[in-house]
Write a structure and sequence with these properties.
The chain has 189 residues and is α+β, with helices and mostly antiparallel strands. The protein has 7 helices and 8 strands, in the order H-E-E-H-E-H-E-H-E-E-H-E-E-H-H. The strands form 2 sheets. It has a 4-stranded antiparallel sheet with strand order 1-2-4-3. Strands 5-6-8-7 form a 4-stranded antiparallel sheet. Strand 5 and strand 6 form a beta hairpin. The longest helix has 14 residues. It is globular, with a radius of gyration of 18 Å. The chain starts with a helix and ends with a helix. 26% of the residues are buried. The mean pLDDT is 92.
Length: 189
């Protein structure tokens, strides 16, 4: 698979054991990502009601029975393609209201990337920005602990724009990039 599809697989895929061997399963609420892997692998995407009560919508799924492993992170050749897919899926650009040194509220653009620690270490070391400290977040849903995740936070507009410039390329999910662009414009008002 190309590195954009490898990024999708790392972001939303997992290996499951079949009757004779393990194979790659990729799930996502956004059909666009699954269709990209379908084109690359010649497998068909289909809708699944798995976790519909949790997600509020059907997921799109692809089972690639001839894919038994993914390349190691160090073996990724096109790191910007890989990171583009991963960050489109696990990244959020929003506006944080913070106070400046004089205590006046100001809008600040923020990019947050979520994932497992080893994945964020990989991303942290290759993005064109100052290395960030990984944040450890405890997830609590309905007052019940449901696990932990990690995040990277970028709060410099200049760094965020440099990251996006480095990530930009084809293929990309235009819906996500349009949302990101609207957040950048909203932060300037």
């Amino acid at each position: 698979m190309n590195d954009y599809c490898n990024g999708i697989a790392y972001a939303t895929g997992y290996f499951t054991n079949g009757t004779k061997e393990k194979y790659l399963v990729v799930r996502n609420l956004d059909k666009w990502y699954i269709e990209n892997i379908a084109k690359e692998t010649s497998y068909s995407a289909y809708q699944s009601t798995y976790n519909v009560e949790r997600d509020g919508a059907n997921q799109w799924v692809l089972k690639a029975r001839d894919i038994h492993f993914l390349p190691e992170l160090e073996g990724i050749k096109n790191k910007s393609d890989f990171c583009r897919a991963y960050i489109e899926i696990h990244g959020i650009i929003d506006i944080n209201l913070a106070k400046n040194r004089k205590g006046i509220p100001v809008k600040r653009l923020r990019l947050r990337i979520y994932g497992k620690e080893h994945m964020l270490n990989f991303i942290n070391n290759i993005l064109p920005a100052k290395e960030k400290k990984i944040q450890y977040i405890k997830n609590v849903v309905d007052k019940k602990y449901s696990g932990e995740t990690c995040a990277l936070y970028y709060q410099s507009k200049k760094e965020i724009e440099e990251i996006l410039k480095w990530l930009d390329g084809c293929p990309k999910n235009d819906n996500i990039w349009d949302k990101w662009e609207s957040m950048i414009k909203a932060s300037e008002k």
